[in-house]
Design brief:
By secondary structure, the chain is an all-alpha fold. It folds into 2 domains: 69 residues, no CATH class; 222 residues, no CATH class. Helices cover 73% and strands 0% of the residues. It is built from 14 helices and no strands. The chain starts with a helix and ends in an 11-residue tail after the last helix.
Length: 320
C-alpha cells in the first residue's frame, strides 16, 4: 500500500511549477517516502496521505504565484494591460450557454408539456458537458470557463442525474487527454487572469436572474429577452476585450442592465395581473435602488477576483 501512496504523491508533484519540480521534486518524494514508512499501519499511512492531499491546493497556489512573480522571461502581462482577445468564433462560443439558457427559460414560460421541458433542459446540460470536455482537451481556453461554470451550477441546483453525469464527463476528459497538463493550464489560466474565475462564477446568478421565476408581467418575454441579450453580449464583449479592465467593465455593465430590467419588470405589475404605470407605483424607485444595492453586493462577491487582479503585481505566470 505504501507503494501506491508513493506513486500517487509522485504524480501530485507534477502539479508544481517545472522549476520547483526540478529543484525540490526528488527531495519532496524522499521526505514523503520516509515519513510514510514511519507510520505503523495502513490506516495511519492513509491519514498521512490525506493530510498531504488537503494541504496541496494552498501549496500549489503559493508556489505558482511565487514562480510567476520571480520569472523574468516571457511576455509581460499587466493587470490592467493587454490580454489576448478571443476570436469572434470563440467569443460567441463562450456567450452561447448564457443565450441558450435565457431562450430555454423563455420557452418554459409558454407552459410547455413536462416532457418537452425535460428534453430542453437535458439537451442544454448535455451540450454544456460536451463543450466542457472539448475545452478541457484543448487546455481550458477562456471560453471554456463559462461551460465549467454552467456545468457546476446545474449540478448544484438540480443534483441527482446532472451531478451523476458531471463526474463521467470529467473521467472522459481525463482518459482522453492522458495528462494532467489541462488541469495545470486551468489553474494557470486563473493565475494569469483572475477574471476567468469571475467569468465562471457569473453563471450562478444567471441561473436565477434570467429565469424570471414567478414573474407574470404581461410583457415578461420582452424583459427576459432584454436580460438574456444583455448578459450574452456582456460575455461576448468580455472575451473580445483587449485588456482586463475592459473585460471587467463588460461583465459588470451587462449585469447592471440585466438587474435593472428585472427590477423594473417585477415592480411594474401586481399580483392581480394589472399593469400599472411606473408613476402609479409609489415606491418603484426605492425598489430599483434596493435591487441596485443588491447588485453591488453581488458584484463584490462574484467579481472580487477580477477586482483584486487590478492590484496584483504586474507580472503573471506564463502559460504552459
Amino acid at each position: 500500500m505504501s507503494g501506491a501512496f508513493n506513486i500517487l504523491y509522485r504524480q501530485l508533484i507534477k502539479f508544481y511549477p517545472a522549476s520547483f519540480q526540478n529543484e525540490f521534486g526528488e527531495e519532496m518524494q524522499f521526505v514523503f517516502s520516509q515519513a510514510l514508512s514511519s507510520r505503523k499501519n495502513t490506516l495511519e499511512r492513509a491519514a498521512f496521505f490525506l493530510k498531504e492531499l488537503f494541504d496541496l491546493p494552498a501549496a500549489l497556489l503559493r508556489q505558482h504565484l511565487a514562480a510567476g512573480f520571480q520569472r523574468q522571461g516571457g511576455p509581460r502581462m499587466d493587470n490592467n494591460g493587454p490580454v489576448q482577445p478571443s476570436s469572434q468564433h470563440e467569443a460567441f462560443l463562450g456567450a452561447l450557454p448564457f443565450l441558450m439558457y435565457g431562450l430555454i427559460c423563455m420557452l418554459v414560460k409558454l407552459a410547455l408539456p413536462l416532457s418537452a421541458e425535460f428534453a430542453l433542459w437535458l439537451a442544454f446540460y448535455l451540450i454544456t458537458l460536451i463543450w466542457l470536455v472539448i475545452g478541457w482537451v484543448k487546455g481550458f481556453p477562456r471560453w471554456s470557463y463559462a461551460y465549467l461554470g454552467w456545468s457546476i451550477t446545474i449540478a448544484l441546483m438540480w443534483g441527482g442525474a446532472p451531478l451523476a453525469l458531471l463526474f463521467p464527463a470529467i473521467v472522459v476528459a481525463l482518459v482522453w487527454t492522458h495528462s494532467i497538463s489541462p488541469i495545470k493550464k486551468f489553474f494557470l489560466g486563473i493565475l494569469n487572469d483572475w477574471t476567468n474565475l469571475s467569468f465562471a462564477l457569473v453563471t450562478l446568478p444567471a441561473w436565477f436572474i434570467l429565469s424570471y421565476m414567478g414573474n407574470n408581467h404581461p410583457y415578461v418575454m420582452l424583459f427576459m429577452l432584454g436580460s438574456t441579450l444583455a448578459v450574452s453580449l456582456g460575455a461576448y464583449l468580455y472575451l473580445r476585450s483587449p485588456n482586463m479592465a475592459n473585460g471587467i467593465i463588460s461583465l459588470l455593465g451587462s449585469w447592471v442592465a440585466a438587474f435593472t430590467l428585472l427590477s423594473i419588470s417585477e415592480n411594474a405589475w401586481n399580483n392581480a395581473g394589472n399593469y400599472p404605470s411606473l408613476a402609479a407605483t409609489a415606491s418603484w424607485y426605492l425598489m430599483i435602488l434596493r435591487w441596485l444595492a443588491s447588485l453591488g453586493m453581488l458584484a463584490i462577491l462574484l467579481f472580487g477576483p477580477a477586482i483584486l487582479s487590478l492590484f496584483r503585481p504586474g507580472k503573471h505566470p506564463q502559460s504552459l
